[in-house]
Amino acid sequence: MTKMRSVKNLANSPPPTPSETALSVQVPSSESSPLSLNQIRTLLDTAWGCRRSDPQECVRASRLLLEQPLDTADLVRATLYLGYGLMNQGNFNAAEPELRRALHLYVELADHQGQRDSLNVLGIVKARRGRPVEALKLFLQVRHLSVTLENVEGEANALLNIGATYSTMSDHPNALHYHFMALALSRQHALLSVERRALNNLSVSYNEMGGYDDALEAAVACLKVVQAEDDPMLDAMALRNAGCAHFGLKQFPEAQTMYLKTYVLVEQVGDQAEISSLGLLLGRVAQQQGHREKARHLFERSLKLCQKIGDEQGQTKSLLRLGELLGESGEVEDALGVFHLARALAEQGQLRDKLCEIDLALSRLYRQAGRYQEALTHIEQHLQLNGELFNAASDQRLQSLRVQFDLEQAEQERQAVQHLNAKLEETNRDLRTAQAQTAKLLKRLEQHANEDALTELPNRRAFDLALSGLLPDQQLGIVVCDIDHFKAVNDRFSHLIGDEVLRQVGALLKSQLRRRDLLARYGGEEFVLLMTDANSSIALSVCERLRRTIEEYDWPTVCPELSLTISLGAAVARLEPTTLSAQDVIQAADDALYAAKNAGRNRVEVRQIAPSAR
């Protein structure tokens, strides 16, 4: 029982000494005389500066400010900083009303940038409270406000937050989609810090998906991006993600090296929550390597640090790791005590996913101790919570799709109306100019609807529209092209390289065609070509030229050791209104492609078909 007492004392032990953590910010006492304007501004800057490194001081400074007579601009800043500090303490219930109050004040001030900042932090709170659908709504508003403010960096960061929210819902395809959008935007506008955050987020998503090689590649790519100014936190994030990838690959010494490098950087910045989190990661490595005493020390130190900064969620995680270690070491009673402390904190913070995890651990330990009734109670609680979480996650995914569609459609319509009204006002004396600009906008929207985002080629919709415009007796040739062994490219070189291959293949094919030919991305690794007035000889000549162009391209410039070929199937015919349609020609070209594939790939097969062939 001596060990059990030490565990209980741990939960109520005093916080680390100043030598173990960052020094506290000196904030005047609330009993002091009213602060001067300069003191108020200095204190505001102080509160903002320590919002991450010492959220407790941020909260104390903000509350002291709110006791002072402030003008509206300073009042709203202090309110926002209070919400920010409470969020970083893990006190989401208290943070949310403060952030809503700040948002209301910014609306009254007609301060769009302030509204954007408040919505952004409020979205983070919603996501961390396990309300991803509500978070998505807020981040979508942040994105649209950023566009209105012409704040490209804000828009890219909103895309990253949307992607991160999808990650919390385990909706990894959508998460990757938004992270790649942010990455493209950052590279387009040379936003190096955003590019690094996008690569970090991609690394996180790949780690969560179990794609540890891709996660490691993204983290290393982030570290290779050179900024004008050092950003130790971005370096730390990349090193941490690399460590998680090594851990997933069971490369524990490499993981430990990455985590220790991260620790040095984070300690310089003074981010106490991140220091605590790294302690847990290092503890897990030590645990995997059989160093249980070292792991226990790291878990306990993380717990003390979370207690110091008031991070209840971090305390729950630390206790959970410590309980697992004690149970693994055979200290069942101590482990039970730690798990019950963790469960009380999880209930207090409404951390239902952690409650589910803790109940499962308690059930196993009670069964190990021969206390079967208590084991049954906790396994029933685990199963009930697990079912509720599963149902909630399913509902959230459906709601998120509806929210995203509805909000984006409504915002596009609103922006289109605003844009049109502005143009009409500006060109009121010249109706023709206004009509021309409206036509240009519609053409651009039509172009986006008919363009493949990755290759910038026409998409399948555009190709189908072109087919519908053919004459009933049109002479044509249709070619279906498929990249050989494309799945192996993704598996061996990563999906990032696979995307670059698709872009390059599309560009190479397009460069070899006549102006009147239509090349489109048909789906996946397939491209389709429409040639009017083409016979078998022309089709064969064009296809051979395309095949050689891909085969002879210097693919190692895209990625070392990469080589690539394509297979092509072509069909040539004159359409007949009742006996031969364009779809019949596509099917014949597709059959020819399969013949080329079956004959060994990197080949061309051409079919000449007639109405009687149906």
TrEMBL record:
It holds the Pfam family TPR_7. It comes from the Bacteria. Residues 1-32 are annotated as: Disordered. Transmembrane segments: none annotated. Residues 407-451 form a coiled coil. Keywords: Coiled coil, Plasmid. Residues 19-32 have a biased composition (Polar residues). CDD domains: GGDEF (cd01949). Residues 474-609 form the GGDEF domain. GO terms for biological process: cell adhesion involved in single-species biofilm formation; negative regulation of bacterial-type flagellum-dependent cell motility. GO terms for cellular component: plasma membrane. The keyword Disulfide bond does not apply. GO terms for molecular function: diguanylate cyclase activity. PANTHER family: DIGUANYLATE CYCLASE DGCM-RELATED, REGULATORY COMPONENTS OF SENSORY TRANSDUCTION SYSTEM. This is Diguanylate cyclase. It comes from Deinococcus psychrotolerans. The lineage of its organism: Bacteria, Thermotogati, Deinococcota, Deinococci, Deinococcales.
